[in-house]
Design brief:
Elements lengths: L1 H20 L16 H12 L11 H7 L4 E4 L6 H8 L7 H23 L6 H26 L12 H4 L6 H16 L13 H14 L3 H14 L22 E5 L13 H4 L10 E4 L1 H5 L12 H5 E2 L21 E2 L21 E5 H14 L3 H16 L27 H15 L6 H7 L2 H7 L7 H4 L6 H6 L6
Length: 491
């Protein structure tokens, strides 16, 4: 009987097979049925934004930006996530999981942007095609900017892989990758709007990243030209209170040039997981990415011992009040410090959902635009002009005392606090600007890139407590998993 039932079932299946195979699959898109409408284009673009978010440890940008620098150490429980410590000490191997996570995450972003740029069908309207392609070009430039700064020579992919052979391509030179980044940003800036829905790319974001990649390549005039266009737009200004760049209630403000959005309580998950990775243990956090004593020492203070207010906006330390209103306990951290910029108080995100934060990641602020302008002017022999944007950043910091009533002594700027810089010595000003970047942008994941571009002597001096050797560690190696699957990459 069992054989008969199977035979009958087979007959029924075969009898209906022809009609069944003629039916279109419902609820499933293929490359031939997707990318065909304006809605499809929007969905594909949204997917291209997703890899830059910090919804999981799969985007460990902070490991490379902070822990690999002199600003931070791994922190956490000894032995926990030891691969992060290997990166911070430059004792890693190619099979380090964080090397692989970073590579895979950002190349996934590149793959998705390539789909948007190259696959849109003829029924997508011209206006939508133009706008989403411009956004995708910025996103591709963003992903490649991080990859080229972390790994150096990487495969340059600008079209979707249509065959197995196209999956295996060799690495391109660093100049070639930067050229592609610039091309994308120039094309994007020509199309993108001055303002957009929060989190969407604007013309200012494209020009800001163009200024940054130009600065990194020592193309100072191109950097200044891009910044001039940003300033002419009138879209950006410094927030009166520095800390308002890092609180939920004041996100997407006038200082934000490009900000990566997060939102708690969503399905699918859209929260900021860094809120848990960096929080103290008693708040259900892992207390990773902790500031070093050297970072603390970079902040200026008056002869009476009053610190640059950015210090306590950036980190918790002994004798100060923590986010929840209690006194900070230095025992919460192996260095006695914890960073604040990516953390929310328990009143906003309780311990039970600590890894589901609301805070965005601000990749670029107008303060950085001003500091890039100061650096480009100084390096191009215009040191006197460089003082203007540099002192704007310092003025905002000291005048927090005029705008933040939580500061002791509110209403008066303490004597001698962050005075205007007056030297026009290029060498002296260079060091001042570098330190100003460090304290202004601390724990925003920029420091390691800066150390590397400042050169061998500077980097080796700042990383002297690690195994860092510039000729060996200027770039991290291509992950072993990529070497194994891409036959065009040599060890």
């Amino acid at each position: 009987m069992r054989l008969i039932r199977l035979t009958l079932a087979g007959i029924i299946l075969v009898a209906g097979c022809s009609d069944f195979l003629d039916e279109e699959m419902q609820g499933i898109y293929t490359s031939s049925t997707f990318f065909q409408t304006d809605d499809h284009a929007g969905l594909a673009l949204t997917a291209a934004y997703q890899p830059m978010s910090f919804t999981s440890i799969q985007n460990p940008l902070w490991v490379f930006g902070d822990v690999a620098s002199d600003d931070a150490i791994k922190g956490g429980i000894p032995g926990d996530q030891s691969e992060i410590e290997f990166i911070g000490q430059f004792s890693y191997t190619r099979d380090n999981g964080y090397l692989e996570n970073m590579w895979q995450r950002y190349f996934e972003g590149i793959s998705r942007t390539n789909d948007v740029i190259n696959r849109l069908g003829p029924d997508v309207s011209d206006a939508v095609r133009e706008s989403v392609t411009a956004e995708a070009r910025f996103l591709r430039a963003y992903y490649y900017f991080h990859l080229v700064n972390i790994y150096g020579e990487v495969p340059l992919k600008t079209t979707p892989a249509m065959s197995v052979d196209e999956l295996h391509i060799p690495v391109s030179s660093v100049p070639a990758i930067y050229q592609q980044i610039e091309n994308d940003l120039v094309q994007a800036a020509a199309i993108l709007p001055e303002s957009a829905v929060h989190g969407r790319v604007t013309r200012g974001a494209a020009l800001g990243l163009l200024a940054k990649v130009s600065l990194f390549q020592e193309n100072y005039q191109q950097c200044l030209d891009a910044i001039h266009d940003i300033e002419q737009s009138g879209m950006y200004s410094l927030m009166p209170v520095y800390s308002h760049n890092f609180t939920d209630a004041t996100q997407n403000n006038a200082e934000s040039v490009f900000e990566i959005q997060h939102l708690s309580g969503q399905d699918p998950f859209q929260g900021n997981a860094m809120n848990q990775w960096f929080a103290p243990q008693h708040e259900n956090g892992y207390f990773f990415n902790v500031p070093t004593e050297d970072f603390f020492a970079a902040f200026e203070q008056t002869p009476e011992g009053i610190f640059d207010p950015r210090l306590d906006y950036t980190l918790g330390r002994s004798g100060t009040i923590w986010l929840n209103g209690e006194e900070f306990n230095p025992a919460w951290s192996p260095t006695g410090f914890l960073q604040k910029k990516h953390l929310q108080p328990l009143s906003e995100i309780p311990a039970g959902i600590k890894g589901n934060g609301n805070l965005n990641y601000v990749f670029m602020r107008y303060a950085e635009i001003l500091l890039m302008k100061a650096e480009a002017l100084n390096e191009s022999g215009q040191s006197a002009l460089a003082l203007v944007p540099l002192n704007m950043v310092r003025e905002r910091a000291r005048e927090s005392y005029l705008h933040d009533d939580s500061l002791e002594g509110f209403g008066n700027v303490p004597d001698g606090l962050l005075p205007d810089i007056t030297t026009t010595s290029q060498d002296q000003l260079r060091e001042i600007i570098r330190n100003e970047r460090r304290v202004e942008l601390g724990f925003e994941f920029h420091r390691f890139y800066d150390l590397m571009r400042y050169g061998e002597n500077y980097a080796e001096n700042k990383l002297s407590q690690t195994n860092f050797v510039y000729t060996e560690h200027r770039y991290f190696p291509v992950p072993q998993s990529e070497v194994d699957i891409n036959n065009q990459i040599n060890n």
